[in-house]
Amino acid sequence: MERHEPGASLPSGSAIATRVGSKRVRDNIVHPVEISTPTPQFVSPSPVVYTEVKHFKKWASWLIPVFVIANVVMFVITMGVNDCPKNSVFCIARFLGRFSFQRFKENPLLGPSSTTLRNMGALDVNKVVHGHQGWRLLTCNWLHAGVFHLLANMLSLLIIGIRLEQEFGFVKIGLLYVISGFGGSLLSALFIQYNISVGASGALFGLLGAMLSELITNWSMYANKVSAFIVLILIIIINLAVGILPHVDNFAHIGGFLAGFFMGFVFLIRPQFGWYTQRYNSHGYISAATESKFKTYQRVLWFVSLFLVIVGYTVGLVLLLRGVDANEHCSWCHYLSCVPTAKWSCNAQPKTCLSTETGNQLNVTCTSNGKSNIYMLSGLTDRQIQSLCSQLCT
């Protein structure tokens, strides 16, 4: 910031001073007055009083902790509804009662069954398109597949979200979170046609994308911007790379990231420091030039990003409601979510089984991998048989 000192001393010798706007002036003539200057004396100028200008308000973060609590509460409710001892044959940590977990072979994340998640509002394309349950595009963001899934997402949300909420406020960050989560669900629904999807990862990647766009649009305000940009890019690449593992919905990550990236240009734009300085400067100083509130490139990014978000969401919703499978138009896109190796398969076909019961024997055969098993059980419910099917097909 420039420092303007209006109290600078005049040079020695005769000087010309002018009085403008004096009440004693009787005409429109400005009279020069000769001033005799004796031996120079150094007079300390009157001290200049500077007032602190707070360029950006710091907010108290409360919405992100509320989001974390809401996700935890939803997980507890989901586990209560799951009631593993009642609806499954095998459970982990049975001492927890109805809150015990499904078997690791069925759910390695320590969580409920897929049937419970589907009933609680998981993203199921068939129900969205043919059952007119579009609300699943939002509710799936508040459900988690297990304890490990919940802990990873909530810790990330606290680290990323609190900082952003302190900088930009709960309204902008809350909208970013919800819009990004919806965008992740939308892209996931276009590509993941057979499996359900849950988790707040799409919204989290949206916050990461918003951090990147915020750095770009407010580029001139940062000191170590290049190093910050490189670190942020590396973090995003590493997190997206994890998404190529099986059972991870990387399309939700990509969709959420793109939505948050573009909305960051809209929500997280900052006025220039020069504009703030002019606005809050003392009245005694008049700037020769007026500083614009936003730079031209910021305005361009704002309009282009808003246009792309509106068009993208509109086209995506139209394609989804028409039942379009995006994999049919992009033969390689499925590799963005899962890369098959000798260690795992990326087969996303639904798990179905054939079961026959003879006396106290239950024979279950998985139609997708051909495995079969005989269980010495009888009188099982359909939900318990589905649980055995999920374990056999995994």
From TrEMBL:
Protein's cellular compartments: Membrane
EC number(s) per entry: 3.4.21.105
Any one GO BP annotation for this protein: proteolysis
Gene Ontology CC: Golgi apparatus; membrane
Keywords: Hydrolase, Membrane, Protease, Serine protease, Transmembrane, Transmembrane helix
Reaction(s) this enzyme catalyzes, per UniProt: Cleaves type-1 transmembrane domains using a catalytic dyad composed of serine and histidine that are contributed by different transmembrane domains
Transmembrane segments: 62-81, 142-162, 174-194, 200-219, 226-245, 251-269, 300-321
Enzyme class: hydrolase
A Pfam family it matches: Rhomboid
Gene3D superfamilies per UniProt: Rhomboid-like
GO molecular function, one term: serine-type endopeptidase activity
SUPFAM superfamilies: Rhomboid-like
Domain Peptidase S54 rhomboid: 132-268
Membrane topology, record value: Multi-pass membrane protein
Function: Serine protease involved in intramembrane proteolysis.
Protein family (similarity comment): Belongs to the peptidase S54 family.
The protein's name in its UniProt record: RHOMBOID-like protein
